[in-house]
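Hi there, hope your week has been kind to you so far. Would you mind checking whether the tokens look sensible for this chain? I owe you a coffee for this, so here goes:
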Amino acid sequence: MRRLNLVVSEADQGERLDRFVAARGGISRGLARRALDAGGVFLDGRRCKVAGKTLRPGQQVTVNLEEAGRAAGAATALERSRLLYADAALVAVDKPAGVPAQPTLTTDRGTLPELVGALLGSPVTIVHRLDRETSGVTVLARTKAAAAALSEAFRTGGPSKTYLALTARPPAPPEGRVDLALGKDPARAGLRRVDPAGEAAATGYRTLRASALAALVEARPETGRTHQIRVHLAALGAPLLGDPRYGGPRRVGEVAIPRVMLHAARLELAHPVTGASLVLEAPVPEDFRAAEAALVPPLPVA
């Protein structure tokens, strides 16, 4: 991502935002308009999509531009086959890898709530988030009451979550519980690290299969901290494949790893209206299956 940090000067008093971004940012006006339309322009820290917005001296303009070839275009639709459950209060979907749960710095298009809302024909609210490259079960609310109840349930750790991860090696020990607090990494924006002064975080885990190349690990997070599974498994010497930010390789031998190999396979929670137990499961996606088959094949049946 390319970022432009611009300050409105006295000479720019009353200038249109699109013209200012183009002139001061050294980019074409067409590119400036595309960045505005996509939601990649922020005025004094707030997203602004009004090309004709007039500026005043001292204002801060941040422009986030997706670098050419660095990312695929935003998804425009969600297949109905990814719908796992729906009623008047909530909906559960199998989130594809690559779809953001919320607007990014470069765009507010193609987010999961937008895609699910389009599929159902009504707006929805995200109540818990998977990382962009993580696939699997995600729940969204269809009413304000359900959103409040579900958000509180996730905040207090009520739902039971099960993930599958492909790691560079088995965690040590191969089964157990990680209880390591997590905090922001001051040296790397947006990332987390083990920090005794951070927020409490715990993850149960067990190694399902392992080979000389990789391991298939089941992770059961008891809390919902940002990047929790990724940091905890890395702390056990088992970084996720496709996760170079936490030490995981993008290639193992001849096998290219397309993304962070993490899949939210199962979610069990109480229905926010009826209290009934809901068990939601998402099938393992093809890219995960292919990497698993190549690196951690199942043992032959005797």
Summary: The chain has two domains: 2-65, 80-295. Residues 203 and 221 are 4 Å apart (CA to CA).
